Amino acid sequence: EQWYQRRVREAVVSTQSTGEERERHLEEKRGDILAEKVSYKKMMEQKLETISHNREVISQETAKVLEEKKKLRSPPQVRSTELDAMQRKLEEKRAERMKLKANLQMTMNSLPVKRTVNLEAEKRAMEERRWKELEQSRERVAQMCTKSVGHRDTLLT
Asked: Tell me, what's the pLDDT at 128?
């Protein structure tokens, strides 16, 4: 709206252009431009202040919410004698379990060497039997194939 009014004045001044009027008009124009610049600058500063204020408020509220969530997640710091007793019992059971595990490991490591040697020998014997069975089954298949080929040859002649 101000811009439109300025244009109208410029049009009027340009038609009645006398030296003094023209200079007065140019001064008015400069003053208007400077006033618009100043008002625009103030408006932008106010917007920036509003934005920074809103950001600060939002960050404070977010911090409050996070603090409340943190309080809800953390268990209460109230310690009772029952809780302490349960904790000690749990530690004792854990220690006992660790001792049993260590004892079991020691007994597994101290198995007689004779037993492990026997197990290895047994394993080798089983492997040898398996290989022999495989060889025998292949020989049977080969014999059957040669018999069937010989039988076929007699039929062809």
From this structure: 94
Tokens representing 21 are 């009027």
| Cβ(16)–Cβ(35) below 8 Å | no
Q: For 25-36, what is each residue's pLDDT tens digit?
A: 788 889 988 999
Cβ-proximal residues to 28 (8 Å cutoff; 6+ apart), any chain: 9
The per-residue pLDDT for range 83-106, each reduced to its tens digit, is 888 889 999 999 999 988 888 777
Between 116 and 112, the more confident residue is 116
- Give me the residue label for tokens 């001792």: 99
Question: Scanning the structure block, which residue is given the tokens 């039997």?
Answer: 129
Whether residue 69 contacts residue 46, with contact meaning beta carbons closer than 8 Å, is answered with: no
Q: Which residue has the tokens 């953390």?
A: 74
Give the whole-angstrom CA distance, residue 59 versus residue 65.
10
Rg of the chain over Cα atoms, rounded to whole angstroms, equals 51
Taking the C-alpha atoms of residue 152 and residue 157, their distance in angstroms, rounded to an integer, is 9
Q: How far apart are CA 119 and CA 115, in angstroms?
A: 6
Q: Which residue type occupies 114? A: K
Specify the amino acid at residue 9: R
**Phi/psi of residue 18, nearest 5 degrees:** -105, 160
